[in-house]
Structures are given as C-alpha cells and as structure tokens.
Amino acid sequence: MELKRAERKIEAHQEGAVIGEITYSDTNNGMWIIDHTYVDPAHRNQQIGEQLVAEIVNWAREVNVKLLPLCPFAKKEFEHQSDYQDVQANT
Fold this sequence. Notes:
GNAT_dom, 5 strands, about 90 residues, Aminopeptidase, five-stranded mixed β-sheet, single chain, alpha+beta
C-alpha cells in the first residue's frame, strides 16, 4: 500500500486503485479540520484508517498546522494516541 498526498486529502493506493482516503478542510488560519475518513469495505480491518490518520498527523507537523478531528474515526484515533496531542487544535 502507498499513501499519496493530494489537495486537501491523503489517499491509500493499492495495485493502482484508491482503497481509502482521509480528507480535511483548510481554515487558512493554521488549522485543518479532518472531516472524513473512508476505507473500502474489502480492505477494512487492515489498519489503513489508522495509517491515514498517522500520515495526516505527520503532514501537519511538517507544515506546522493544528488538526481538529471532527470525523468520528479520526477523533477516536486522537483519543487513543497521546502522541498526537502536539498537533491537536484546542477546542
């Protein structure tokens, strides 16, 4: 599997097909709102969603933005991964 960054999203690719994605809205004030995480049903339970969240966290660190996880899956990941707190927006 390969993760590819695109405009306002990260896609998970496998054998040339998109099998998952995480999308965000840019507030243009140093914060991205994670609004959706999707993994194709045939590829679920393979930690793809978790990898997508980890990749957007890494990207946020690289570009120095905060993340507000409104997507239920991403929100759950932030609650379980204490090392994401440095990029979590204060709400």
